[in-house]
Write a structure and sequence with these properties.
By secondary structure, the protein is mostly helical. It is built from 16 helices and five strands. Helix 10 packs antiparallel against helix 13. It is elongated, with a radius of gyration of 23 Å. The structure holds adenosine monophosphate and tryptophan. Adenosine monophosphate binds next to helix 1.
Length: 332
């Protein structure tokens, strides 16, 4: 029985890799706990890269609709938008005052961009502090994330440890749960599927578009009649994570036997995507066309999150010496 929390930046509509590699596994982990999980859309973090308000709003809805369509139960779990819980910014300030400069200067997220410091905002520099606040505000125990977030979790634990040493054991130290990265899905050009490469497949979007993009998957030029290597083929790799095992084995045999073309494999992949995600596609369309319903869910989640957040913050303010026990109503 553990409290699970994870955040998803609203940097774009999630793609097949995000769905299979992050969203579905996080929902599975959340559902396996007796306690509600805290799942949120990190729109404050997205502000470090997105400057267009319409784009930010649209991305936030697209991410929310995807999680709900993927099966997140908002009655059981606390599903909210980061910016609806302003308490997180207050905690981030307190934590920032305990965070040594070199810890942030060594963070990959900053270092990658540090060649051109004029383009680094204070928000990007302190990104890990806000992330620590996200996690510590709810006394989180388990944080499912990709390996790329390892350092951010270490920073969170370091900050929490420093706080606890100075002010008393107030914060739970969170454990990261790294997702199995056995399956880095290739995109339609064969490189890692990524929004920044423009090579993604969106299984919850328009089917004509999906079909066109599947047809554009890059393959080698082995002629139809020749045997083909399934293990080096992008079409087969994608098929193997969306189709049922028996169908995958059948396709593998067809590749090895020869007389089976990439065009046929692409048709099969499209069908598998269409079928596997049919219920989610329909649910996505419903959610995305009902912003009122999305807002109502996010508001409900924010209320639950805030009541939890306020409990932590009251203890934190008291520990820091900002308010007296009497004034805050907090009993020591
Ligand atoms: P990103 O927004 O690209 O950082 O992706 C968020 C999470 O989605 C990552 O931490 C991964 O767990 C997952 N993910 C992204 N791209 C892929 C991919 N091509 N294959 C598998 N998982 C992915
Ligand atoms: N930085 C994370 C990412 O880019 C998103 C995130 C923000 C997050 N706050 C978090 C993840 C808290 C886990 C916990 O993927």
């Amino acid at each position: 029985m553990s409290r699970v929390l994870t955040g998803i930046q609203s940097s774009g509509k999630p793609h097949l890799g995000n769905l299979l590699g992050a969203i579905l596994p996080a929902i599975e982990l959340a559902d396996a706990q007796a306690e509600p999980a805290f799942l949120f859309i990190a729109d404050l973090h997205a502000l470090t890269t997105i400057r267009d308000p319409a784009v930010l709003r649209e991305n936030t809805y697209a991410v929310a609709a995807t999680w709900l369509a993927a099966g997140l139960n908002p009655k059981r779990h606390v599903f909210f938008r980061q910016s609806d819980v302003p308490e997180v910014c207050e905690l981030a300030w307190y934590l920032g005052c305990l965070t040594p400069y070199p810890m942030l200067a060594n963070a990959h997220s900053f270092k990658e961009k540090s060649a051109n410091l004029a383009e680094v905002s204070a928000g990007l520099f302190t990104y890990p502090v806000l992330m620590a606040a996200d996690i510590l505000l709810y006394q989180t125990e388990l944080v499912p994330v990709g390996k790329d977030q390892k350092q951010h979790l270490e920073i969170t634990r370091d900050i929490a440890g420093a706080f606890n040493r100075i002010y008393g054991e107030l914060f739970t130290l969170p454990e990261p749960i790294f997702r199995e990265e056995v399956m880095v899905l290739p995109g339609i050009d064969g490189r890692k599927m990524s929004k920044s490469y423009g090579n993604t497949l969106d299984p919850l979007g328009d089917l004509n578009e999906l079909y066109k993009r599947v047809k554009r998957i890059v393959t080698d030029s082995t002629p139809i009649d020749q045997p083909k290597n399934p293990d080096t083929c992008t079409v087969f790799k994608l098929y193997s994570v969306v189709a049922p095992p028996a169908a995958v084995e059948e396709m593998r045999q067809r590749y090895l036997a020869g007389g089976y073309g990439y065009g046929q494999a692409k048709e099969a992949l499209y069908e598998a995507l269409r079928e596997r995600f049919a219920p989610q596609r329909e649910a996505y369309q419903q959610w995305i066309s009902d912003k009122e319903a999305l807002e109502a869910i996010l508001r409900g989640g924010a209320e639950r999150a805030r009541s939890e957040a306020q409990k932590t913050l009251q203890k934190v303010r008291e520990a820091l010496g900002l308010r007296s026990a009497v004034a805050s109503g907090f009993r020591v």
